[in-house]
Write a structure and sequence with these properties.
Layout: H1 7-15, H2 18-21, E1 33-37, H3 43-51, E2 58-62, H4 66-74, E3 83-85, H5 88-100, E4 106-111, H6 114-120, H7 123-135, E5 140-146, H8 160-166, H9 168-177, H10 187-196, H11 203-208, H12 218-224, E6 227-235, H13 238-248, E7 257-264
Parallel strand pairs: 1-2, 1-4, 2-3, 4-5
Antiparallel strand pairs: 5-7, 6-7
Helix pairs in contact: 8-9
The protein binds S-adenosylmethionine (SAM).
InterPro entries: SAM-dependent_MTases_sf
Protein name: Methyltransferase domain-containing protein
Length: 267
Amino acid sequence: MAPIQNHDTYCGAMQGSLAQKLFFVEHLPKLDYLLDYGCADGHLLRALYRNNPWGNPVLVGFDQDEQMIERAEAAALVGGGPLFVSNEAHALSNLTLASKKGALTSAVLLSSVLHEMYSQSADWKMTGFWKRLAATSVEYIIIRDMFWDEREAKPRRQFAPAIERNYPKEAADFDLMLSCGQSIDQAKYATEFLLKYPYQENWNRELLEDYFSIPVSLPARIQDAGYELVMWKPHCVPFIQERIKRDVGVELSYPTHVHGIFKRRIV
Ligand SMILES: C[S@@+](CC[C@H](N)C(=O)[O-])C[C@H]1O[C@@H](n2cnc3c(N)ncnc32)[C@H](O)[C@@H]1O
């Protein structure tokens, strides 16, 4: 994966959808421990800490990008607040300790990180990830990400002409990244472009990411790993729909994102 060229812009863009990203708060019982896996600069954990929906849970952020962890630590809150680590084994072993204490309710949050992981990794590596996560005994798995489900009806109307009129250079860059058989004329790739074009400061990195890399079989995979489905809700994100309508004149009327919650099965 190409490095992030501008961490300020990258982190600024993530703040926009904060309320949307905290969807899970109203669907979960009081948590004692939350690991934010792929926490970036830690903004979600700081927002949770300030809003304090569950008293004082332990909030831990993990990111593989050490610069992100440095930013998270630099923004640390006085008098407690989230902890941040850049080592997955460390993050998961602490999660295991918390989850195996029967009285604690633990959760892992995977917010906008899974599509990056599926973009970077072969499917078998991701199977290993789900096994590692299940081995911690974490009680809840929370997912928020971009998601494309071919089984849902998609519009016949093509968006490519509007895209090419408004963003000719970016559309050409994007087209170069598509594989044989893929085209911006197809609703899936046109939609991916419409989600992607605002991130031009980190454009080379964004171009390499497959925004719709999460497989439709993911809920079944997580269930196979010992979890029951609490919620799997594909949806549109209003502020993104509005931005696309304003910039490109296109109305996206079908889901581009998903909210998911899974709960560990009692054995
Ligand atoms: C799009 S940002 C999302 C940040 C935050 N979770 C949010 O929802 O706003 C994705 C973050 O995941 C991190 N990331 C990507 N792949 C990762 C991996 N395999 N392990 C840990 N972090 C990863 C990136 O470094 C980046 O900070």
